[in-house]
Amino acid sequence: MPTLLVLVLLLMSTGSAAQAFDPSHFVPLAMTVLRVEAPAVNGQVKVGTAITVAPGVVVTSCHVTRETVAVRVVKGAGRWTAEGQFADPEHDLCFLSVPRWPGRPVRFAEPESLGLYQRVVAMGFTRGAEVSLSEGEITGLHVHDGGRIIQSTSSFSSGASGGALLDGEGRLVGVLTFRLRGNTDHYFSVPASWVSARLPIPEDRFLPVDQPGRRRAFWEADSCCVPYFMRVGGMKSEARWPELLRLADEWIVADPYNADAWFARGLAQARLGQAREATAALMRTVGFAPRHADGWYELGAASIVLGDGDAAGNARDVLAGLDAGRAARLSGLMRGSESASQPEPDGTPKDAVDSDASARPR
């Protein structure tokens, strides 16, 4: 408890007054979030995190408990052995029956309460040592199998799988699950609604924890078969714009009302110098998701390339209410464009704004 309290107070002190979280919402979670130790068949001990979701029941990631001979949950000097497991491997959620664990169940947030750029906190046993907290914001909500996979900047690493993604009131919004290499916002949590939908679990559904042959989760599939939002992430980080454009077109056919699919198309077109086509796609993005800050930024940048100052200014004004940093960067692009359009002393116009450079976020 003292270690968690110190972490919570440190977390509160790092944000602005408007963004600071109330420590009273997080301290009680010391009796909700636990460390998982799972001796594997190869002799190694796998480490993860679990969340108490019902009396005597915790949930963790199935990739933590897969191919193990036993599972224990740990809090301080105490250790409790899981007596059974109910697996939802497709969603990477494994529920453990730990009847003697006296922990307090977490509170669940309403799924519809989540929004882009909402502040959240990741809580887990990063690197398997002490519990850690990482504040960030939601940068993506990706529809998949009746839920929304949460992408955020709340960082976590090995040992935190199965940990809690929490809102400002300490309510569970997601379970920390996987991360992708590349940008700082490639941290993903499966939705808490997938957990609550399974509760309560009848006792006869719990099986021995060492059940073999469990299938892989959706995010562990081959590269051809993972969800679109995962496939486009790698292409964006590697600047594979022609491939991204083809994949975005495929995604739009499969899900024509998905804002992220249209954003992928607009981003690829902007980077390929197709500013007019990009503008059309990005208008669809912000039409489907009015709070899509990346969409507004790219729309403003593409409008600058087309010489449409009014559209760029409108995008900047909307951004000011969503993301002040992006709004400032777009204002900088607009000033650069205006400066370039002024004639030199001899009357010769300066060079036009380079389309690729203007559309690229700084």
What does this structure look like?
With 362 residues, this protein is an alpha+beta fold. It has a domain at 228-359: Serine Threonine Protein Phosphatase 5, Tetratricopeptide repeat (Alpha Horseshoe), CATH 1.25.40. It is 33% helix and 22% strand. It has eleven helices and 13 strands. It has helices at residues 2-14, 62-65, 192-196, 228-237, 241-254, 259-271, 275-288, 293-305, 309-320, 324-341, 355-359; strands at 33-39, 45-54, 57-60, 72-75, 78-81, 84-88, 93-97, 119-124, 132-144, 147-152, 164-166, 172-179, 187-191. A seven-stranded antiparallel sheet has the order 5-4-1-2-3-7-6. A six-stranded antiparallel beta barrel has the order 8-9-10-13-12-11. Helix 8 (293-305) runs antiparallel to helix 9. It is elongated. The two termini are 42 Å apart.
Q: How many DSSP E strands?
A: 13
Please give the count of helices.
Answer: 11
Write out the strand line-up for the largest beta sheet, numbering strands in chain order: 5-4-1-2-3-7-6
Name the CATH superfamily classification of the domain at 228-359.
Answer: Tetratricopeptide repeat domain
Q: What's the CATH C level of the domain at 228-359?
A: Mainly Alpha
Calculate the terminal CA-CA distance, rounded to whole Å.
42 Å
Shape: elongated
Helix content range of the residues, please? 25-40%
Q: Which sequence of SSEs, written as H and E, runs from N to C?
A: HEEEHEEEEEEEEEEHHHHHHHHH
Indicate the CATH architecture of the domain at 228-359.
Alpha Horseshoe
Proportion of beta-strand residues: 15-25%
